[in-house]
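User: Show me a protein chain along with its predicted structure.
Assistant: Here is one chain, sequence first, then structure tokens.
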Amino acid sequence: MRGLKSFLLIAGLGLLLAGCATDPTGANDPYEQTNRAVFDFDQKLDKFVIGPSAEAYVAVVPSPARQGVHNFLLNLDLPVTFANDILQGEVDRAEDTLGRFTINSTLGIGGLLDPATDFNIPYHKEDFGQTLATWGVGEGPYLVLPFLGPDPPRDAAGQVVDIFLDPTTYIKLREHFWWSAGRRYLVIVDTKSRNLDTLQNIERGSVDYYASVRSLYRQLRNNEIRNGRPDVQNLPDL
């Protein structure tokens, strides 16, 4: 509970900053000096904790078991995706999400397997930060948060709402905090383990790794918000 209150405070402060901050460089990163310090902290955390955990995970856990964990984690996220599909008015995508969750939770043994893909039901992920964007809410100033990485105000606030959209939040477990923390950490390790080479190549090939991550985050985030559709607003004039 204390961690959630701290996160709400950070998100709330971020929303206040979003309303008053400007950046004459056009990068919308008015707190770059602080962001870089936090980024360095997160990089050290990655180097000494997350990176070794991901490498050990790959070395110790067989590939089929890792794929099962990955499938299970994706399946846990589908109720939140479904809620945000509905909030965005994406009925067809909501049907896909509901279909995936139903099939993988039953035929897929609680989500460990992914038979929904064999039924040609595509996977996608939505969160309330994306929903806010479709409602016209701006990203706000670029922020890097401890442990969370890039997390501008809109996306930070969206993560808080997603906590309440997640049905597992309301499951009464004696060790609910450890379940939530363990799930979060396993998602990070799973993601890191599946992208070790890519992330290392980006870091090696970047003159300014911080700026590269900032740019990649925004590109990926904007693509997610558009659901992979072309960015018609930024097409060059003919």
